[in-house]
Amino acid sequence: MASAAAAPGTSSGGAGGEGGGGTKVNQELWYACAGPLVTLPPAGSLVVYFPQGHSEQVAASMRKDAGAKIPSYPNLPSKLVCILRSVTMLADPDTDEVYARMTLQPVSNVTHCDKETLLASELALKQTRPQTEFFCKTLTASDTSTHGGFSVPRRAAERIFPHLDFSMQPPAQELQARDLHDAIWTFRHIYRGQPKRHLLTTGWSLFVSGKRLLAGDSVLFIRDGRQHLLLGIRRANRQPVNLSSSVLSSDSMHIGILAAAAHAAANNSQFTVFYNPRASPSEFVIPFAKYQKAVYSNQLSLGMRFRMMFETEESATRRYMGTITGISDMDPVRWKNSQWRNIQVAWDEAAPSERRTRVSLWEVEPVIAPFFIYPSPLFTAKRPRQPGITDDDSSEMDNLFKRTMPWFGEEIGKKDLSTQNSLVPGLSLVQWMNKQQQPELLNSLAGKPV
Amino acid sequence: MASAAAAPGTSSGGAGGEGGGGTKVNQELWYACAGPLVTLPPAGSLVVYFPQGHSEQVAASMRKDAGAKIPSYPNLPSKLVCILRSVTMLADPDTDEVYARMTLQPVSNVTHCDKETLLASELALKQTRPQTEFFCKTLTASDTSTHGGFSVPRRAAERIFPHLDFSMQPPAQELQARDLHDAIWTFRHIYRGQPKRHLLTTGWSLFVSGKRLLAGDSVLFIRDGRQHLLLGIRRANRQPVNLSSSVLSSDSMHIGILAAAAHAAANNSQFTVFYNPRASPSEFVIPFAKYQKAVYSNQLSLGMRFRMMFETEESATRRYMGTITGISDMDPVRWKNSQWRNIQVAWDEAAPSERRTRVSLWEVEPVIAPFFIYPSPLFTAKRPRQPGITDDDSSEMDNLFKRTMPWFGEEIGKKDLSTQNSLVPGLSLVQWMNKQQQPELLNSLAGKPV
DNA sequence: ATGTTGGCTAGAAGCCGACAA
DNA sequence: TTGTCGGCTTCTAGCCAACAT
């Protein structure tokens, strides 16, 4: 179904040159480590790139504000529509941190894109993350101490690990799991103790010390297909990543980002960015169709109620409700009329950890009429929260679309994508492009307020 | 004597903000780790900044060529004369790698500099590195294995460590040494075995594992004043420093460097660079007086014989002889008329490790007449090479000056610096600036061939 | 003068069920 | 169901001189 668009991780441009020592990694494992909210646009599709968000991520990576000293690039708009030429999933060989390398090529005129690009862009909206069986556990003090091994949650062990032969006394087996760099780790899996429990013993401490894991960090076990186990980690303490500060000043970094994008935009040439999904919640490259749909569907106003997806402790997703309290530019001087986090919000519940007070248009799901308010708390409470099982079925965008504009009926999202499924009601992206008759979209891209 | 110029490491602008997690470090230790050839210009003095060399260093830090895709900045000259506003010695908290943060401010017209700046710039030439007693040992397999401790070279132990009480059986003591981050490491120093030798036992393995040292890496012990020991390391395997590749593309980095410098040059505003003395031999910020002196003194020509300083395995210095085989731009397109490594050379001896085939004007000591050829091999052979003892007495530049132009007599370098000591014969930098009558210098700065 | 090795020993790593929570 | 702990065992880290270069 999604064969028209190259899947991330298997796209073109995967030569190991650029991207430093990062190694190309297994797609399922990468997604599991990146978290349930992350989906990379497919190579070949149209995306919108926000230099402001990019700058934010770099600043977050270095625990430094995107300083005011950075010169603004008058020729660089607050958003660039690009073709995503390649996207590669990578992992830092030292820290196992996952990140993606994306090669972008600005397009001066969206209507000149070829059919293939438009098709890929439409498919991007329907793209599904690989649905993998996995569990994610935050390590306890006992898990990381030298005194013992790893206590495997019962349900997780039964769901993910190969079944033990319970005729043995005690039941035990050897597990092999492959990490992001294709290194294989071997563990003794045993079912013992009083009461009985699943444990990883021999081999576990090597893994903990090898990855320098501490209590609070998380490990992920994925069952791939039916055979192999994959093994990923997520670190708790987001260290400032001082890295590179000995190479480049943060000023130069920020200028470098802007200048590289500006140069590429001026010449319609390619440039490369790195997206680090766990460094900060800055999804600064989003599918064009997602952006377009949000601009068309979400008629936002002050006081409007909305819901938004967040990641839970156990790597599942949960919706929180809030109210729009303002719509304004984050940085009216350098990024005038940018739609990057231009919506100020207040949340119903107190923040479990950090809750952003500014979000972008395409992140929210507006609730425009009282009778369309989703009974979120009740509904989610009824479903037991299983780690690794998300309540986002990846057709969320369609649900949203139908919920917020139910009068469009059921045919949306059901029919053949390439011919009928619409981003704008009754008109596919391809049809729309062929007509080239909707100046509003280009205007909104140029920075008009929503 | 050098009180007019602030010493590096104690200069202004030492706020910890910029520079990431690097910590400000002890000056002697920094220099010892940086190697015998490195001297940082003092804050407040005039320097020449070579963006080409800077780009080279960044490329070397990432094991990537300074690619051809980097756009050239027409407004950015191949060299910028700057005031060095601040210079801070730093060390990476993770790897202990030493580096310096320098804040530069381009000056549009050198002749407008105030007297203080010119004084500081003259003093820069006479600046001496701190002369410290230290030893440097490359770790063996035994030194780094878990099986035992550290075998201290006899001479080194006697010279650097506090003397043992030989009435004890065996003679032993507790040593405390402070590393770059002011962390204190404690070792048991014992003199035992058959034959007797100096060993560090208890505490050593903690240090090795803590710093993640491998056989081939080096450790340095410095005796500071008469009391404290300082402890530094130098890693052997120059790892590609993949760091930051997950943050910024190398293209963006290179563009960032150029754009930051160009922006600063256009506005006469400050910019910040990081100099990593051990990443690559790219001294891209050099004292203005050193540059000026080289331009005036070194009348180079094809076939000319010269000598040049290199670092030895034991952290001492040695001169190698060579012949000039060409004078041409490294990159005639992007860096036309740059003097950065514009001299092609051939070496008399085969390279012990790597010997550069392109060097810069100020790196060579020309030998212009046969009877002035220094009997280098014989001379250096007569002097035993003690680790930590350099044969550069830091008035080398003056020696060179006198050797290559002996007719200028002995008064050079002897009289009061601020009034008489000349960079140009018979004319101090201050006098020269006051007269403002030597357009050749500015021409040469603008890129005229030597 | 100093790198490596075998022998020995003390202490940490690591396996186990008991006992909470 | 699973985190932590005391008890016990195993194995490695680490001190020593012998030996080699």
Major sheet attributes of chain A? 7 strands, mixed
DSSP strand content of chain A: 15-25%
The unreliable regions of chain A are 1-20, 370-427, 432-450
The number of strands of chain A is 18
Assembly state: homodimer
| Overall outline of chain A | elongated
Would you tell me the structural class of the helices and strands of chain A?
A: alpha+beta
Largest interface between protein chains, with number of residues from each side: A-B, 45 and 45 residues
In whole angstroms, the N-to-C terminal distance of chain A is 33 Å
Instruction: Output the number of helix runs of chain A.
Output: 12
| Percentage of residues assigned to helices of chain A | 10-25%
Radius of gyration of chain A: 23 Å
**Helix/strand order of chain A, N-terminal first:** EHEHEEHEHEHEEEHEEHEEHEEEEEHHHH
Overall pLDDT of chain A: 77
The largest beta-sheet of chain A arranges its strands as 5-10-11-7-8-9-6
Could you characterize what this model shows?
Two copies of one chain form a homodimer. With 450 residues, chain A is α+β, with helices and mostly antiparallel strands. In chain A, 24% of the residues lie in helices and 24% in strands. The first copy, chain A, contains twelve helices and 18 strands. Chain A has helices at residues 27-34, 51-61, 115-126, 141-144, 154-160, 204-210, 250-267, 288-297, 376-382, 396-404, 429-435, 439-445, and strands spanning 23-24, 46-49, 80-91, 98-106, 133-138, 150-152, 172-178, 184-192, 197-200, 218-224, 228-234, 271-275, 285-287, 305-311, 317-327, 343-347, 358-359, 364-367. The longest helix of chain A is centred in the middle third of the chain and has 18 residues, at 250-267. Chains A and B meet through helix 7 and strand 12 of A and helix 7 and strand 12 of B.
